[in-house]
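hiii so my PI (J.) wants the whole complex modelled not just the main chain, which honestly fair. so below is everything: two entries, each one labled with what it is. i double checked the lines twice but i was tired so who knows lol
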Amino acid sequence: MAGAAAGLPSKEAAILKGHEGAVLAVRFNKDGKYCLSCGKDRSLRLWNPHKGIHIKTYNGHARDVRDVAVSSDNSKLSSCGGDRQLLYWDVSSGRIIRKFQGHDAEINSVKFNEYAAALISGGGDRSVRAWDCRSNRFDPIQVIDTFKDSVTSVQLTKTEIIAGSVDGTVRTFDIRNGREIVDDLGQSVNSVALSYDEGCILASCLDSTIRLLDRASGEQLQEYKGHENKAFKMDSCLTNTDAHVVSGSEDGRVFYWDLVDGVLVKSFKAHAAVVTSVSYHPTESCMLTSSVDGTIRMWKT
Amino acid sequence: MAGDDESVCVYYGTPLVSEVELNPRKRKAALDQGKACQVAPWNQEVTDSEGRRRFHGAFSGGFSAGYYNTVGSKEGWAPTAFTSSRQSRADKKSQAAYDFMDEDEKAEYDAKNLEVRSDFDTFGSTAAEYARRQAAKEIGDRPSAIPGPLIDEIIVPVNESTGVKLLRLMGWRGGRQIGPKHIAAASGAKREARKAMMSLAQNESSSKILPGTEESLAVGEDGQLADEEDFDIEVPTATPNFVMNPKKDLYGLGFDPFKDAPEFRERKRAREEDRSGHGGWRGHALALKRPSLFRPNAGKMGAGFGIGALEDLGDEDEDVYDQGMEFEVQELEDDDKPPEKPQKLLLEDPLHKGSTLPGFHLAKEPPKKKPWFSPPIIPKNFSFVHIFNNPLCSERLQDRPAPPAAQPPDDPEQCKYIEGLASFVAKSGPRLEEISKEKQKENPMFGFLFGGPGHDYYVRRLWEEEQKLVKDGKQQIQIDNAQNEKAGKQSNFSSRLAANERGRMLGEIPLPKGPASAQRLDSPVASMVGADDRARLQSALSSTFTSTSSAGESAGNFQPFKNDLAKQSRFEQFLKGKTTGGLWKPVSGGSGLSEAERSQEIFEFETIARMQQEGLTPDKRSHLNAPGKPVPELVAVMGSRFTAAGIETTTTLAEAAVGKELVLRELVKKYPIREENSWRPAPLLCKRFDLLDPFAGKAPPLPKPRSRTESFILLTNPVESNLELRHPPSQANFTQKSVIQDPKISESDERYGEELEQINEKIEPIPERPVDLYKAIFSDDSDDDDELAEPAQLSAHAGDAMKRAEAANTALNRLVAGDFLESLGKELGLEVPEITRPTGDRAEVKERDGGLGRSKNNDEYRRGESKLQSSAPVEVARDQRGFSMRHEKSPLGRQLHKNGTVVEDVYRRDSQQSSRGKVLQSDTNEALFGVKTRRLDVPDAPRRWGDDTSSARHTATGKEAKVSHVPSTVSRYDDTESESDSDKEKALAKQIRREERRLKREKEKRKHKHRKNHSSDKSGKTKKEKSREKERHHHRKRKRQRTESSSGTSSP
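here's the output for the full assembly
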């Protein structure tokens, strides 16, 4: 166990300062060279965390930016936030290509699909909407409104849309089979993450518990407790090896659990305030955390 | 016409209308000349005797106005500007008789009344008035420190008028009335006395009068003071001597509270007088008298606090801010006057009477006082606590020390008396004892009352009885919560239905308690109610109440698993867990049962418990344990709902389902709970995700109807499809399942084919669509292929039909090209946009046997043949199993069966997708598409789209024929378009083809005739069908004729 814990990033490698106010989300891009962050200061920021450089700022949102997604070819960005807008950005020029309006409430989460052909967003209006990036349509391709409460998090696989909601459900919409699979967890789901093998869903709930669900059967495989998550929207994720579960905590700490045993492996104080987002590097053992204290920190072993 | 002087002249013709008529002046002249009759009546004018025009305006007949005969002005009648009197409506207009007088009357009036000119003013008042007015005017002009006429009023004009001077010379003194003195002379001694009084009053009120003025009496502004009537003779009010009236109240400057109620003014003044030093003047004293009479609460209000909201003031002019106390003067305090006089005045004088409130008089007798009783005197030793008797006084009684036990008297009679009386007295109180003491004074048997023999026993007995009563009372109070303890010994309450018994009967869960409930089943009520009744009661009421514990407990008594003690114990545990509520925890794993066994067992327990709850008696329950024996009642009940199943225990399917669900619920019991629903992704979403639309080809969900009518319209289609699907239920289900939802079946071709064949035999014929609908669509535009064109009728009008067929051909060529492209694209793995296909209903009819179903109409048959001739070997997609499938574009899954002919509607596809040309290759639909692609491989196949015949024969095997149904509107449009396009281009080719076709048709005719004879015998066609076909045939004929006639005109 100690050996496993040793491989986990816990040393601060870089600190990215620039956001004025809370940083609400930080995301590695697909290859992990860059990262994007968004925050309450209504801006998106592109960083090179490995060098600690702030590359670009994207301003355009009218309110706090809650989530950001990068297309797999790194050419497009999309961000969403409290202004109920989904902005579709061109990375290099920093211009807004399109504004998707249609959500009736704040948008909590946005994701690109595999080829950045569509955007999937989930928001406080209890809906998940799919937007078309290819055509000039401004209205959503589809609105999924089976949720009973606001949608906090959206994840995509190649064929499925997975969304967690405050109504306590994680819903998987299988596009290929035309099925909706509802996994009722009984607790408000704060964020949904996928394992790298896409066999499991990691759902962090507002009862300070992270639950690991088997996607095939819908069974709960493990619970992870110890951190504090009762009021804030926080991310959790799996390490790139799928061996550990990472989550922030409202007390500014970061927790590592063993995926299988559910044992708390490691925890350390990462930030002065709530850790809002964690993003694990896709290949290396490297992690980014963002916090309400306005900083983004990169952690390495 | 003509005057007398002109009578000699003879006029011919109509005289010219001279300008006389046109010019009004001249017309007038003409009128004078008596030519009025020539003027139309509306042109005539009215004149007066002097020849003046009489009427003006308003079409010359209206108003008599203007110049001399007018309202008097030169302008005539000129309306004045309207001035609204609205603002001045409230202004009072004082009118006097003088205003209404005529001039002569006025003159008369003036002559009668003397007027005083100001410079000869007798009294000086007018002069003063005049001067004052002048002053006021001046004040208005010049600004002054003190606004208003005050200063000028103070400064009295100095000059005296001539009249005053004269009067003074005559001995008049200012302030005196001018007039005869006879009244004064007649007054006599009374007046003398008054004079004396007046002089006194003058002395007293001299402070109020300015020293410069001679006038001495303070007189009110209006001279109608009642009590001064007597003085009026000597003190005229006519002289407006200026009296200084210093402001003593706190009203605003110029505010006169008594403006509209002068009668109160005097009262006020009287009060002031009284305050300043009462007793002075009699008149004031008199005035004082009045307020106290009609205003009893005068001056009682709190001084200095203003008027409260609740204080009802008699008069609003009351000086609220009076300072100090007031008191009423009840009596007249004058002593130098006899008291009768003023009192008489007070009571009888009508003027005085009027000064009371109008409509009231003074009461003759004072109102009677109501008697007032003083509160009773409470005795000093009175205690405020009321002591009740039984049972509230029980404590007291209980506290009473017990009298010593005594032996009952020897006499049993007396003993009985004693006991009886004691119990009575205990119940009714000691009063009874006294009564009986009174009554039974003489009776020796009641000697115990008076201390005789047996008294001790009586006392003791009485005490005992009282104790008993007290206890009973207590218990009665405690009856609800202390039921169990006394249930055994207190027999007198057992007759009532206790709460817990009632609850048990109703199946309620009792409150948690000790083990006392063990004997409950033996309790009187429970024993009274029969077991069956109880069960019935419980079952009847169990729906309204939570599950019973008694059932659980009685189940504890009942042992369904007597032979397996471990199991029995588990069952009990299960029941306990169930009744205690909450989540049921699985029986500990120590039993060595596997998971499956355990769940099986739990299910069993559940079932038994349920049965028990519903009140099955043990003997009935025993059926449960004996597998294979159905519970008769249950089977009877459930049999109607469920078909028999292969489950060995007949605990019924319903029970099983419900029980299983419950057990599952309990086993699952915690999150996460998984559910699966159908969800339809948008086609575009699938596209963007690079996925095949799983719902491609299925009817799109109905858009939400925006209005009622819309929903109605939209609903018709599915309903129709449902109706069509409904025919043989099993069949419908099967096809739906196999075709749309269940890909497994279609995957295994072999099974599918078999099943289909089985089904085909079952299918009943479905009435065809009304023919004329699509005939109306298709026969018009000759969408038929040339080979398929109706030969019989066409022979007559070959030329036109040829043309049409030609056009259709071109259209079909397009389709063929499209299809070819598609198939090519398929081979190359590319997506080719599909040419828009007809969207109407189509179905393929396969005929098993060539011999069957051939009794069709001549031309239909022909067509079928001709089609087959032209494209038979390649056209029809078939598979080895002897049936072919076709891509069906109608939204309705349709199956037709005709004469053993199955029209298999294989696949539905919405037109949207087909137009998009998406070739679906999802594995689920592979089997279907295998067929489809095969069809697509055939370049000629789409010809059938244009075919409106209902039968076609497939000759490749000689076994089957195809009936292609219902071509579409789209093809029709294509055709019409193509007609215009290709008409000229193919003009040459037509000629050649026509010849060929004619030859062919001849051939076909012959063939067809032959076949008709052959098949009509064999075909099992009903008369009905035949007639329908005939009808169709007729229709077509008519239609064709019509179209031909129309096209004959247009086509060259």
